Amino acid sequence: MRRYVATSIAVALLATTAFAATTPKPLNVPVVYYKLPNGLKVVISEDHMAPVVTVAVYYNVGFRLEPKGRTGFAHLFEHMMFQGSANVKKFEHAKFVEANGGSLNGHTDFDYTNYYQTLPSNRVELGLWLESDRMRSLDISEENLKNQQAVVSEEVRVNVLNQPYQLFEWISLWENAFTNWNNSHNGYGELAEINAATIEDVRSFFKTYYAPNNAVLTVVGDVDVNEVKKMVEKYYAGIPSQPAPKRADLTEPPQTKEKRVSQTDKLANLPALATGYHLPPQNSADFPAMALLVQILQAGEGSRWYQRLVKEKELTLDLSGGLNYFGNEFDYTGPMIMTTRTTYKPGHTADEVLREMDAVIADITSKGITDKELANAKVQYRSNFYSQLEGSFGKAHLLSALALFRDDPQQINSLLTPFENVTAAQVKSAAAKYLVPTNRTVIDRVPEKKGTN
Amino acid sequence: MKITLALITLTLALTPALAQKTPPPPGPARPLNLRKITEKKLPNGLTVVLAPLPNVPKISSILTFRSATTASDRKARPGIAQIAASVANEGTDTRTSKQLKEELRSIGGSLSLGSDADSTTMSASSLSEFSAKLFELMSDVAQHPSFPESEVKLAQGNTIQQIRAGRAEPGFLVNERFQKAIYGDHPYSFVVPDEKSISALTPTDLRAFVAKYYIPNTSHLIVVGDIDVDKTFAQIERAFGSWKSGDAPPDENPPVPKRDKRQIYFVNRPGSIQSAIYIGNVSIPRKDKDYFALRTADTIYGGSFYSRLTRNIRETKGYTYSPFSSSNTRAKTGAFLAGAFVRNEVTGPTLLEIFYELDRMRVLPVTDEELSAAKEYSTGNFSVELASQFGLAGRINTVYTFDLDKSFINDFRPRIEALTAADIQKAAAKYFDTYRAAIVIVGDWDKVKDQVTPFGEVTIYDAEGNIINKMGSTD
């Protein structure tokens, strides 16, 4: 019998032998959750495995909510958060964090924008002070806005416009799969719209969405909960709340016909295919089965689609994708598609690739999956889930998403249960219900120039 | 291993009502909590290194074959280490590729191989409850890969296509040309094999390669995670004990080319809307005494976010999104490089600023503030790295691959803290050699040639690596 004595993820091992351990060990991540009077959600989780701490702030706004005519604005705004506040000059946030032994970043996603620093744990107060200063008093000049518009334009060039395929499995696929502008528009942004943003846009976005009552503050690491609570009170209690932002309508009309799009690519040497299937909402009974189906179809080289396309039929070179283009099952809230991207070999067609993908689906909808396949998918799912919890940032991310979207970060300890309870019959019926051509968008992207291969 | 928290600070009682104007001071330093690392050896010569880090119920493992490098057999069979690594886990004497992948899924596992100029590494992980099974699979792939004809053929075809796909990407092209420019005929210049060499390999070649170079007496196995050292070692003995040792093949380390002036290697990519720029040169092996000084000079120059290069060409001038520099030191030598991807219009101005900042590091000492920040940055982030299973395993792997002092991890902090501004300036003066730098640019020659030619002699290549013209005389 093995015993966990770790103080962080104190995982109590119930099974007495290695063979019996096919049921998940219960997780026991300590979670303290409360709200300040100004509405700020606060999550604190002690973890003394290493002398580090992550301080993260998650705002309840992503690129779905950026203003029309301002594609890319939520992300541009994220850059502005490093351009100074009342007591922290332009780019000094990075200076303070790094000079204290930490690292930092921000990320804009479909439904959230986050800011985080991982620091030596005796610097936790610095992280809290820095995040509070910009939440309280972001201070942006015309010059700094122009500077970051240039920087973000280069980011779009380096990651999208100057690349083969131009992230078509995200940007084009979403533009075609969704009809509601909030969901469908290019979240990285059109250069002209990025550069059209004004100081007024920045101020109004900040006031609307960057208020404490629209955010989660999460602290995970080698700290004492009571000490952190006092620091949170000191730095955040005085930040005024704002009227709750009006929630945009993110609903999508159901798709009734397959969508097929053909594109040419000026820079690519090989053709590629992307597909997107609309997913059931996260609270639907079908969702856990779909998540395991995604695992079975396309996670790794043992997956059914990889085996069929790359190994058996030798049609494609690779296979990537998943249930949420940027993240996981828990860190989004609006409508979502399962995406798949594959580079296929010259001399073949998109129809051949699709035919094989469909044949795999047909096999599941007719014969179902084996118990062994289901058991393996669950083990793999659990293993991947644990990996997300390995560092203080990974844990902070999940806790923040659960606080932001579900108001319940304690769920971290029971999150696996619905996935562990999925049956083979549910996977089969989810395949039949969602993996149908009328529910999908397909983009075939082929090189423009001929004869390169 | 329960940790009693020290009181972080007592000053919190004096809470001011107003927003604080200056950064709060750090609390007392927390214990580093370095992991206990145990080294053992099997009778066949395999070095085994174990480090418990029970942050999640998983284990992470790296098995490094130090004799199987991209330099091995490079004249007779270029690319063989790379293809061997990519096909080794596609079937063994007793398991098909599909069976291997299924068994990995059943333990929540992953297993992949890659090769570089210093070694071939197998990285693997699984739920800790299945560690014995993971070792069995790793051992099977290390000892008995069967290289089935069909798998070899498929990998050859796919590798050729993947390299073609890569030739559309500026990042691939700039790295490939840079390695060739600075390393010349040294084995470190290898990036990808040519198509003919790939096609020429046979399953027999690959089996012979593995038998000769995947040998326990020049390999090490690192296991980090939720483990009990004794039980894990017993599992490893069972799985790897029968692995037969072999003769360590001779090592090759020819001299790297000496560049006597600045040279520009331009890869023409018509239609490019940015120039991808790498500037640098060979530096030092990892064991060199200047390692810490060079590493810290790199941090201050472009290796951290609040670096000089980022402050200049990103935050002040807006030329680029992600400028960087890196000091990549390896077993035999290393490279220092600075890079940025910039819009065509600012190609020349970017070269100017990269050189200006390099020369500034060589001519003037860094400030006390910069030096102290760089030290904190290095030591703080070192702790974060050691807190993850693959982070710690990777760090231990460098100790064994580059034959560093076993005390490297414990010595890291004092070695960094001992550096002076003079050490940094000396390292910069020596290794940021702007007058003999290789300048590699991937971009649209017609759009940027006037900005590039003032910086030196140009050789122009196409995406396949053929020389199109010298000295920019195409215009």
Blueprint of the fold:
The complex is a heterodimer of chains A (about 450) and B (about 475).
Chain A: E1 32-35, E2 41-46, E3 52-59, H1 73-80, H2 92-99, E4 103-108, E5 113-120, H3 124-137, H4 142-161, H5 171-177, H6 181-184, H7 191-196, H8 199-209, E6 215-221, H9 225-236, E7 259-265, E8 272-278, H10 287-298, H11 304-312, E9 320-322, E10 337-343, H12 350-367, H13 371-388, H14 392-406, H15 417-420, H16 424-434, E11 440-447
Helix pairs in contact in A: 1-4, 3-9, 10-13, 10-16, 11-12, 12-16
Chain B: E1 38-41, E2 47-52, E3 58-65, H1 80-87, H2 97-106, E4 110-115, E5 120-127, H3 131-143, H4 149-166, H5 170-183, H6 195-200, H7 203-213, E6 219-225, H8 229-240, E7 263-268, E8 274-282, H9 291-303, H10 308-316, E9 324-329, E10 334-343, H11 347-363, H12 368-386, H13 389-401, H14 408-417, H15 421-431, E11 438-443, H16 445-452, E12 457-461, E13 467-470
Parallel strand pairs in B: 2-6, 7-11, 7-12
Antiparallel strand pairs in B: 1-2, 3-5, 3-6, 4-5, 8-10, 8-11, 9-10, 12-13
Q: How is this structure best summarized?
A:
The complex is a heterodimer of chains A (453) and B (475). Chain A is α+β, with helices and mostly antiparallel strands and 453 residues long.
Describe the structure.
- The complex is a heterodimer of chains A (about 450) and B (about 475).
- With about 450 residues, chain A is of the alpha+beta class.
- Helix content of chain A is about 40%, strand content about 15%.
- Chain A has two domains: about 30-235, Cytochrome Bc1 Complex, Chain A, domain 1 (2-Layer Sandwich); about 260-445, Cytochrome Bc1 Complex, Chain A, domain 1, CATH 3.30.830.10.
- Chain A has helices at about 75-80, 90-100, 125-135, 140-160, 170-175, 180-185, 190-195, 200-210, 225-235, 285-300, 305-310, 350-365, 370-390, 390-405, 415-420, 425-435, and strands at about 30-35, 40-45, 50-60, 105-110, 115-120, 215-220, 260-265, 270-280, 320, 335-345, 440-445.
- A six-stranded mixed beta sheet of chain A has the order 1-2-6-3-5-4, with helices on both faces. In chain A, strands 7-11-8-10-9 form a five-stranded mixed beta sheet, with helices on both faces.
- In chain A, a hairpin with a 5-residue loop joins β1 (about 30-35) and β2.
- Chain A starts with about 30 loop residues before the first strand and ends in a 6-residue tail after the last strand.
- The longest helix of chain B has 19 residues, at about 370-385.
- The model of chain B is unreliable at about 1-15 (pLDDT under 50).
- Chain B is an alpha+beta fold and about 475 residues long.
- Chain B has a seven-stranded mixed beta sheet, sandwiched between helices.
- Classes of the chains: A alpha+beta (about 450), B alpha+beta (about 475).
